[in-house]
């Protein structure tokens, strides 16, 4: 049986020529068929001044676009939708994608504003049996995944397979984003499988996907098969691919191999994997000294890592990263004055202990956090204890958790950042208006034709 090929290459910096050359070689080695257009999906979960490693690097994409152009694909479409309730317009500009698309003459399809006028049936779908998509994405073309490799609190790693969570319409994005996350990922992957994967692992992200800390890995990965690509990426980071739930589920549904002996790894630079456990997520209770964490059982004793548990970890990472960034005082005089008015200067922090509970918690809650306790998630309870705040949802939005955790622990709050706040809100309003306009014009013209 023919083995899936995964190509590894050492590229230490975002050198456009090196990435362009690698992409051209990958197209040749993987024998990628030429088509009239390419649909490129990056990972742009969000982009702010303090989250500059959360997304596929624009210079990585530039190298990919140039190589696609050279292979005869002149019509290139970049499509994306953010996570974390971030307006894509804002992230698109802050990430540098806006300028990149103009310079490289690439069309941008904003999934937050587009009309999802087509439905894709999902064979064997367990969480979703069909997904709505803009019909443009279903036209004849090469589907290119361009993820950024990151360590993920809910899924160990995020690479090619998890990338397609970003094509799920926001109104249904969090549907069963809980202990069924692995199945949800496999459904989304089945809905829109790639022809080519080009993974940015030059600088990877750790300690949260929304606001990660960078680690220079200096590797790029190419493959045709997303499961094989992620299995090799997991191995590189010291994980056992068979123990990563969504990879095991994807492999079980016949989407690709996770057994490295069944993958042909083309590794001319002799890149070695990290030691086992090198990139393992830290225990949630150790992430922030001011936030104590209490985890109970959820759903038949399974850990709800894909839901509130992972989102609690993400929210704490987010607060931690933002606080560390703000301590560098990279803001001007006016912003500093505004932050002072809101009590959001680093010197104004007056931390107090906060307790966060997830699931059905049976243990003791220490006295020092009893009066400042948050229950996160619809299923959360603790016998005889009343929370100060019960955040409802299944799961609770990561943004809501971040906002409330920082408020209740009296820490610097990324959602009260005045510099990001104004363009953020402007982008939300414009995005909503354009979406409504697009829906109206779509229905009007469809009726007339
Ligand atoms: S409410 Fe309960 S089941 Fe739902 S995501 Fe949160 S922890 Fe999981």
What can you see in these coordinates?
It is a single chain. With 449 residues, this protein is an alpha/beta fold. It has two domains: 4-266, Rossmann fold (3-Layer(aba) Sandwich), CATH 3.40.50; 284-416, no CATH class. Helix content is 34%, strand content 20%. The chain is built from 13 helices and 18 strands. The chain has helices at 16-29, 58-70, 88-94, 97-104, 170-173, 181-191, 226-236, 245-252, 305-326, 333-341, 367-370, 398-408, 418-448, and strands at residues 4-10, 37-42, 75-80, 107-110, 118-121, 130-133, 142-146, 148-152, 156-158, 196-206, 213-223, 263-266, 291-295, 354-358, 360-361, 373-376, 381-382, 389-391. Strands 1, 2, 3, 4, 7, 8, 9, 10, 11 and 12 form a ten-stranded mixed sheet that branches. The protein has a four-stranded parallel sheet with strand order 13-14-16-18. Helix 1 crosses helix 2 and helix 9 packs across helix 12. The longest helix has 31 residues, at 418-448. It is globular, with a radius of gyration of 22 Å. The mean pLDDT is 92.
């Amino acid at each position: 049986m023919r083995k899936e090929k995964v190509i590894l290459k050492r590229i230490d910096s975002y050198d456009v020529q090196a990435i362009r050359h690698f992409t051209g070689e990958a197209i040749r080695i993987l024998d990628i068929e030429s088509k009239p257009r390419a649909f490129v999906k990056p990972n742009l979960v969000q982009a702010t001044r303090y989250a500059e490693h959360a997304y596929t690097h624009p210079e990585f994409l530039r190298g990919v676009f140039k190589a696609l152009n050279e292979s005869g694909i002149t019509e290139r479409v970049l499509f994306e939708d953010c996570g974390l309730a971030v307006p894509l317009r804002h992230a698109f500009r802050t990430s540098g994608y806006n300028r990149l698309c103009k310079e490289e003459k690439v069309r941008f399809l904003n999934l937050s504003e587009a009309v999802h006028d087509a439905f894709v049936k999902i064979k064997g779908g367990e969480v979703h049996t069909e997904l709505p998509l803009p019909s443009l994405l279903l036209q004849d073309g090469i589907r290119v995944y361009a993820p950024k490799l990151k360590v993920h609190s809910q899924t160990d790693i995020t690479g090619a397979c998890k990338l397609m969570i970003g094509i799920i319409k926001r109104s249904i994005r969090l549907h069963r984003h809980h202990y069924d996350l692995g199945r949800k990922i496999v459904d989304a992957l089945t809905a829109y499988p790639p022809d080519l994967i080009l993974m940015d692992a030059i600088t990877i992200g750790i300690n949260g996907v929304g606001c990660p800390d960078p680690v220079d890995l200096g590797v790029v990965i190419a493959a045709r098969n997303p499961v094989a690509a992620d299995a090799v990426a997991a191995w590189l980071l010291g994980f056992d691919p068979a123990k990563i739930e969504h990879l095991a589920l994807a492999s079980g549904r016949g989407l690709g191999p996770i057994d490295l002996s069944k993958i042909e790894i083309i590794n001319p630079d002799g890149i070695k994997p990290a030691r086992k456990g090198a990139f393992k997520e830290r225990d949630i209770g150790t992430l922030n000294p001011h936030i104590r964490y209490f985890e109970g059982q959820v759903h038949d004793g399974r850990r709800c890592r894909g839901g509130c548990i992972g989102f609690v970890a993400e929210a704490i990472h987010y607060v931690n990263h933002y606080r560390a960034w703000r301590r560098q005082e990279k803001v001007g005089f006016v912003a500093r004055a505004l932050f002072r008015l809101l009590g959001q200067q680093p010197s104004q922090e007056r931390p107090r202990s906060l307790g966060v509970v997830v699931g059905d918690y049976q243990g003791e809650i220490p006295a020092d956090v009893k009066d400042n306790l948050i229950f996160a998630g619809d299923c959360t309870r603790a016998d005889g204890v009343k929370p100060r705040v019960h955040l409802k949802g299944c799961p609770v939005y990561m943004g809501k958790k971040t906002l409330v955790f920082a408020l209740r622990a009296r820490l610097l709050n990324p959602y009260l950042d005045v510099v990001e706040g104004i363009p953020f809100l402007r982008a939300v309003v414009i995005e909503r208006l354009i979406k409504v306009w697009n829906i109206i014009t779509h229905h009007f013209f469809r009726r007339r034709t």
